Amino acid sequence: MTDDRQPIRSGEPKPGDPPLDDHALIRAHVAGDREAFGKLVRRHQDRLWAVAVRTLGDREEAADALQDALLSAYQAAARFRGDSAVTTWLHRIVVNACLDRARRRAIRPTVPLPDTGPGEPAVADRTSERDTTLAVHDAMRRLPDEQRAALVLVDLHGFSVAEAAQILQTAEGTVKSRCSRARARLAVILGYLRNPEANHSVPTKSTSAADRSPEEP
Fold first, then answer.
1. Architecture in CATH for domain 14-109
2. Which of 29, 87, 93, 154 would bridge with 36, disulfide CB 3.0–4.6 Å?
3. From the centroid of its chain, how far is CA 178?
4. What one-character-per-residue DSSP string does 100-164 give?
């Protein structure tokens, strides 16, 4: 008697089964399933892309960093020990790729202008909104790289301090300090948005001891 059933690939659940979780997809990828890693990327690519864009402030740089990070993750999957969430591991690789690019070159942020259409705010309002967006992006760019990465994870993407510490591979106290210093720095740089009449000086990006937490070298 012959068995006409088709074998189920390691990364493909049986009909009616729930989708494989992230760890199962990593194991399937390591076992040789050619589709498993693509499924994992499609599951998380939107958030990984958003982190890359906000960390670098430049879409082209972010695309290159994300591509580098995913290639690294693809190649390093066999070394993933499973002692953290797969998303934590992926975000760590993406953030590291972004920080590497930020350190190698000066990034000039670009902000796409919205399309105009019926019922949109007046031109003056749109111009003001665009200027504010540009100012915020420029202020984020002025932050030291490590402070910007911590702030993006915690304040913009809602990671807990503990999760951000895992991603950045540093102490929770260091993450808290970096976020606190980044918020204080942004408040100084962007203070004129709250009080346009005030004459605020804009400090340049610095990595001096005053910008580093006591836990940082």
1. Orthogonal Bundle (1.10)
2. 29
3. 16
4. HHHHHS------PPPPP-TTPPPHHHHHHHHHHHHHHHHHHHHS-HHHHHHHIIIIIT---HHHH
CATH code matching the domain that covers 121-204, chosen among 3.10.28.20, 1.10.260.40, 1.10.10.10, 1.10.645.10: 1.10.10.10
**What is the rounded CA–CA span in Å between residue 94 and residue 56?**
11
pTM for the whole thing?
0.68
Q: What is the DSSP letter of 78?
A: G
User: CA 215, CA 209: separation in Å to the nearest integer?
Assistant: 11
Domain ranges within the chain, ordered by starting residue: 14-109, 121-204
Q: Rounded to an integer, what distance in angstroms lies between the CA atom of residue 101 and that of residue 88?
A: 20
How do residues 121-136 score in pLDDT, each as one tens digit?
444 444 555 666 666 7
CB 178 within 8 A of CB 143: no
